[in-house]
Amino acid sequence: MTELTLAKAVNSGLRRALADDDRVVLLGEDIGQLGGVFRVTDGLQREFGTDRVMDMPLAESGIIGMAIGLAYRGFRPVCEIQFDGFIYPAFDQIVAQVAKLHYRTRGAVRMPITIRVPFGGGIGAVEHHSESPEAYFAHTAGLRVVTCSTPQDAHTMIRQAIACDDPVLFFEPKRRYWTKGEVDEDADFPFDRARVVLEGTDVTIVAYGPLVATAIDAAIAASDDGISIEVIDLRSLSPLDLDTVEASVRKTGRLVITHEAAQFGGLGAEIAASITDRCFLHLEAAPARVTGFDTPYPSARAEEHFLPDLDRILDAVDRVLGRQNALTGWSAS
Q1: Rounded to an integer, what distance in angstroms lies between the CA atom of residue 178 and that of residue 172?
Q2: Lesser CB count within 10 Å: N end or C end of the chain?
Q3: Position 330 pLDDT exceeds 50
Q4: How many domains does one find in the chain?
Q5: Which candidate, 176, 178, 267, places its Cα nearest to that of 216?
Q6: Where residue 82 sits, what CATH number does that domain have?
Q7: Range of the domain at 238
Q8: What count of other Cβ atoms lies within 10 Å of the Cβ of residue 323?
Q9: How high does pLDDT run on average in the chain?
Q10: How far apart are CA 150 and CA 160, in angstroms?
């Protein structure tokens, strides 16, 4: 076991993938000599050369377009999108080509492309640097969408994404890049399965990426009031591991879902609808969502009001427990 930050864990996973398979190549803006804006690819170009770790022009559509050509030729490209809000120039290539070529060719063509995306807020960045675009891609058939929340998951899941023959959007929670944790570099687990982080009996909280740590904090705080919360880290956003969530909700009878992205059309709506279908007779209250607001991401000075925090999650826990009136805020406790 080695203690690594989440950023270093991704770096370690990339290094292992490059060493294990000569077909793996890295593409991105400033990922070579600089080592990336967050230094996630630091040292990889020196170790593997400019033919394996390639600095690309500031053109995201060109990065993904080149990756498609490389995949056609048998390579396993790993693309870095420098910030979440920069992915939109490549949106056409991702949803119209990368996601569809395997299906369109009846399996004759595979697109083993991994697209790394630092996402989410909490770092005081300027416009277009703190977005959560995961729902766009989870909605697109033909793409796998995953996200990590711990250094262990970061190391293992990036290797699994690169080894997967499907195209994978790999979202990295940038405000957790400096979180440290123990990493077993030989660990393996299904990267399309959710993880029960904390077990509980009263309420299920479903989170992913940057908000898993916040959900854990909420569960610890709630325990002081005698409330037992089960926390689930989704890991995979498409496909969703609804079986794990269903098993938890059948036990607790209450569900809170939290994510940084806006509420309307977000992953929370899909999870709430699906679990209501599966667990209608077990639910003691309607599922609650704690999300970003339905606005463009605000300036850095206002982001603490935009992002879901411990207090907002605990408020939702009170609502599903019937301890607070959702309309008036009146507390029954």
Answers
A1: 12
A2: C
A3: no
A4: 2
A5: 176
A6: 3.40.50.970
A7: 195-321
A8: 15
A9: 96
A10: 15
What pLDDT does 326 receive?
A: 46
Single out the catalytic residue among 102, 128, 129, 282.
Answer: 129
Tokens for 318? 């009170």
How far apart (Å, rounded) are the C-alpha atoms in residues 72 and 154? 27
Q: What does the block give as tokens for 274?
A: 């699906």
Q: Does the active-site annotation cover 282?
A: no
pTM: 0.95
Compute the 3-state secondary structure of the chain and give helix, strand, coil in percent, each to the nearest 5.
40, 20, 40
Q: Please name the residue that has the structure tokens 């826990």.
A: 317
**Tokens standing for 92?**
């056409």
Taking the C-alpha atoms of residue 294 and residue 271, their distance in angstroms, rounded to an integer, is 18
Which residue type is seen at 279?
C
Residue with tokens 């930050």: 5
In which band, very low, low, confident or very high, does the pLDDT at 323 lie, cut at 50, 70 and 90? Answer: confident
pLDDT tens for 183-231 read: 999 999 999 999 999 999 999 999 999 999 999 999 999 999 999 999 9
- Beta-carbon neighbour count of residue 102 at 10 Å? 18
Would you give the distance in Å from CA 317 to the centre of its chain? 23
Rounded CA-CA distance 333/330 in Å is: 9
Q: Is 117 exposed, middle or buried (0-12, 13-18, 19+ CB in 10 A)?
A: buried
Task: Tell which of 183, 212, 232 closes a domain.
Answer: 183
Type of residue numbered 22: D
* Three-state secondary structure call for residue 249: helix
Question: Could you tell me the CATH number of the domain that includes residue 256?
Answer: 3.40.50.920
The whole-angstrom separation of Cα 316 and Cα 320 is 6
Does residue 122 come out as left (phi exceeding 0), alpha (psi in the -120 to 50 range) or beta?
left
Per-residue model confidence as pLDDT tens digits over 40-61 = 999 999 999 999 999 999 999 9
